[in-house]
Amino acid sequence: MGHQGALGANTAGDSLPRSNGSSNGSSNGLNYRIRVSKRAKNINIHVSHWGDVEIVIPPSVDPRQVPEIVERRREWIVRTRQRFLDRQETMPLDVVQPLPEEIQLRSLPETWTVIYAPAPGTHLTATTRSPCQLHVHGPTENLESCQSLLRRWLNRKATYHFLPWLRQVSREIDLPYTSASVRQQKTRWASCSSKRTISLNAKLLFLPAPLVRYVFIHELCHTVHMNHSAQFWALVGKKEPDYERLDRELQKAWCYVPAWVERSRPSSAAQ
Ligand SMILES: [Zn+2]
Prior knowledge:
The chain is α+β, with helices and mostly antiparallel strands. Helices cover about 35% and strands about 25% of the residues. It is globular, with a radius of gyration of 20 Å.
């Protein structure tokens, strides 16, 4: 979809581009975001797993029509939103907390305790005090700064652990690549470019190790086939016989990623 060799991290409706312009709207107490997308052919309503509502419209649609569209679909939006919010209540605390006290990096596996030490000043730092204990020191009352500090920490962890691991898997299955890096993509677990450059999502840290290994194998197979053709899947099957189950599990794996990392995970309904 769109980008060749990309492995999606979201449910349906994730393939739209980020933005050609967006604004906020509200209709009878229901708040939403309006996004104009050149690639959208229809009007799409996305409800994120955290209850955020986004209306995606093609440029041909007048944004002033949106309140009427929202009203027509209000019942569905409210019901879907409620379903996600109810589900959130049954989710483990470390998944829904705005700031984690514990970070479970299943892929390693490591469980980190986070201690927030408020201190005056403008600079926020994260230091490792003892194994698997992270001290966040500084103006900790600033939620967003804390979240972005922890996200940067995640990137460093992922770079440190994933790059050697990918190299090892690449040797094991005899599929070389040019280079690799870690990012925090919104909608993909990983991708592979035509130059055989692999880009891994730091959020893979939260997934069980067999799923991460599958993502590596999947992307390494894209160094040979830049598509999802039958030949591609045959190669994946040769390198990982259990790939069908792993691929299915990966589709559901967003639930491992805590809220403080990723606030908006769209699910969608076509208008
Ligand atoms: Zn792929």
